[in-house]
Amino acid sequence: MGSPIGTEFDASIAHYLGRAARVQGDLEQARANYEQGLVLYRQIGDTLGVAVLLNALGSVAAAQGDDATAQELFAQSVPLVRTTGERYDLANVQVEVGLTMVRQGDIARGQDLLLQGLRLWRDIGPRMGIAMALSGLAEVATAAGQSERAGRLFGAARLLYSPNSRLLSDHATIDLEQSIARAREQLDGEAFSSGWNAGQAMSEE
Asked: What average pLDDT is seen over the chain?
């Protein structure tokens, strides 16, 4: 059996290999790497590592259309990361899970998690975290047919968004441009543009 240090290193490597596969769209390889990392994190009792990889596995399941498994994994991840006291990771998980729930049609619970994540990101500070949360809430507004609100939230998110941010996590890349394009197609163009201009005019501070 490897040493705890070796096991922690191996868990980290499996995690980052999973991230690389996820970004490349190889969901099966991402899942295999995440599962390997999860086993190793559990062996060394790394609660945060376990929580983060449960979330990552949930995102893979959601991308594969397995909503039931995704919800089960998310249900384990969110309360577990809360026990660690790590606000950064909690905010990240809340926004990622919230956005996935919204896209699965679980609007109420998804919106609640997005709002919780937004409040945390505002306290913590990174603008990219705020952008991620605002983008998710813009998708809530899009689903509700709220054209002006969706445009305003997307405009503010785009103002803050940085595609090269280190904050982007496992299923990371909120594809903001595609989300905006879909919203423009679905909503009233004039109202959306009015909201967009208002969002873009907001202070970045």
From this structure: 89
